Target: Amino acid ABC transporter membrane protein 1, PAAT family
Amino acid sequence: MLQGWGDEILRGLGMTLLVGFCALGVALVMGLLGSWAKLSRSAFARGLATLYTTVVRGVPELLMILIVYYGTPTLIQNIAEHFGHDIRVDFNPFVAGVTTIGMIYGAFATEVFRGAFLALDKGQLEAARACGMGRALAFRRIMLPQVWRFALPGLGNLWLVLIKATALISVIQLTELLRWSDIAARNTRQPFTFFFVAACLYLLITLVSQLALHRAERWANRGIRRA
Model:
């Protein structure tokens, strides 16, 4: 059915998962930093985080990828040329894709983590301070272990959207699942077959992810009495 393109489709699936997991790691780091900044007492930090989430969530994802991969190198080269330097800048498609998607969904993760931190019992933080814990120690021992319980549902939805967004990086020639499907479809002139297979594989990722997220939520809520 795949006329010898099965190996390429599987390699594309592997690349999609690799990009997704790496971008998720970037998004989690950016989300934690962004939520910390939004909850900070510093007006500058709050303003910077608000600017980040507003701009990133307001610009289409595809446009952001094109700006980073094609626009940024050109901007750097033009600035260098203005100062008398002739250089060529090329971004690696994998690095550009992971960074851009991670930054985009880091803005959404910021709001997820912010809500999760606000949902924590303030009495526990007061007890931690009464025991002599500093802010960093209380964050590491009290807040961070519990925040996942509140954040997991939102982060799960974020992952499901993020993994589909990896298809957008096919426009910067990274050979992930959609890119290989497009190449195979053009060469065999069977677009329905290969795009249908790609759709089924994305659906499979979603189903497996939902099972994993359900188990993770049960683990995070262990020992919690439900009303």
Notes: The CA atoms of residues 153 and 227 lie 19 Å apart.
